Amino acid sequence: MFRDLRTAVSPWRRLVAIGLLLTAGVLVISVLGDGHGYPVLVHARELVFWALGCYLGIRIFTHVLLDPLLSHWRTSTPVFARDLVVVALYLGAAVYLLHRSVGVNLGTLMNTGAIAAAVVGLSMQETLGNLFAGISMTLAPSYRVDDWVEVTGNLRGGSGQETFVGRVETMTWRTVQIITENGDTTIFPNRILAQAVVTNLYAPSGLHRRTLKVTVAPHDTMAATLAALEQALGGIPHHSEHKPEVRTHSFDLGGVVLELRFWALGWRHGRAANFQAVRLTQTVLNRLEVPLLGPHGPTPTWVNPVVLHYGVLEDILGRFGLPKEWAPELKEGMVPRRAEPGEGVIREGDPGESLFMVMTGALQAVKVVERFEPYTGLFWEAIGELGPGDWFGEGSLLTGAPRRATVVAATACELVEVPKAAFERVLRNAPHLVEGLVELKESRSGHLSDLPRMANRRDLAREEIKRWFGL
Question: What is the dihedral of CA 314, 317, 320, 325, to 10 degrees?
C-alpha cells in the first residue's frame, strides 16, 4: 500500500511536497498571528503548530532511528513493518492533537473508540484476519521474497487438500503474491497461508537431497548397472562431496526398485536435475539392455552398437608407441561407448583404471559453480574442451590414481575406452614398451613438475607404472 506510493512518486518529488507542506504551515501560523483576540484563531494556530511539530517529529524519528533499525532486521517485508509503525505513530499524534487543541477527553475517546473498534471488527473480520496474519508472518518470517515455497492446505475453500508450488513475488499487509514456474500469478490472502502448511524450498539455505525411483527387471549384473547409472548421473552439476548415487531400494512388480539420489541447490535446480536424471536413467538402462518394469510387464530395449572408426586403433597404438602387430590383442580389450548430452563420463575423485579416446562429438572438462542466474542452482563451468582425436583419463590408466577432473558430454559422443586389462598382456610380453608409457606420463601429468629437481622423475614414473601393472 504505502510501498506502492513510494515507488510511484520519485524521491525528489516527495521532498518538494514535504517542503511545500511545511511552507504552507508556516504561512498559516504567521497569518493567524496571535489570534487578534479570537479564541478560535488561537486554537487553530496551536493546532497547526502542533500538527507540524508532530509531523516533523515522526519524519525525523523514521529517518534517524526506524529506517536504520529495519534495514538490519532480517525479515522478508521490512517495508510492511515500517508502514505499521508509521501508521501507529500518526494515530497517536492525531489523538494527542485532539486532546491538546480541541480538549477531547482521552477516556471518553477511548470508550467511544472501543465501541467503534468492535463494530468495525465485526464488519471487517476477513480484512483484519489478513492484517494480523500478515503481522505475524512479518514478525516471525518463515519465507521471504524470491523464496520458492510449497503450500498445502484447503486453499480454495473446498473439502480437499491442495498443493501449490511457486516463487514468492510480493508480500503486503493483505496478500502474498506467488508466481508458478509457468509464469502464472496466484494471490493468496494472508489468513489462508497462516492456516496452511508452508514448506520453504529455499530454507535453510543450502543443498537439498532429491530422490527418484525406477523399477527394473532383475538381472545378474546389477552391480555394473548401479555403477553405470552413478557414472552417467555424474553429469548433473554437483559438489565433489555430494556426488549422485544409486541404491537398490526395495522390490515391486516382480522387479528391483532403484533409488537415484542427487543434491540440488534451490528448487529450480532440483527440477532441472530431476528431468536430467530421468533422461539419463532411461538412456543408460536401454544401453545396458535392462528393461523397465510396469503394470504390463517389461519394456522392450533397443541398442545401436558402436562401430570403431577406421584408423582409431592405429592412432591409439601410435600414441602409446606400440607396434602394429599388437593391434588384435589390444582390440579385444577395448570397449566402444556412447555418451548422450549431459551424461557424465568420469567424475573427479572416483577410482579409475582406463583411458578414453573421442571418436565423434564434443565433451567438456568441468568444475561446479554456484550461480543465481537464470535461477539459483549449481552449474558446470567448462575448464577444457575435448573433440575427435582427443583422449583423457590416462593418469588413472597408468598409475591407478583417482580421476583428477569431471568430464561431461556436451553433445552426443562415441568414445573408445581402453582399460588397464587391455595393456597388461601386451606389457607382460614386451616390458620395454613401458618407456612409451613413461613418455606419455611425463607429457600429460602436471604433478611431476612439483617434484624436487634432484629426483629422477623418469625413474619414479617408471617404477610407479611397473608397480601398477605388476611388472
Answer: -150
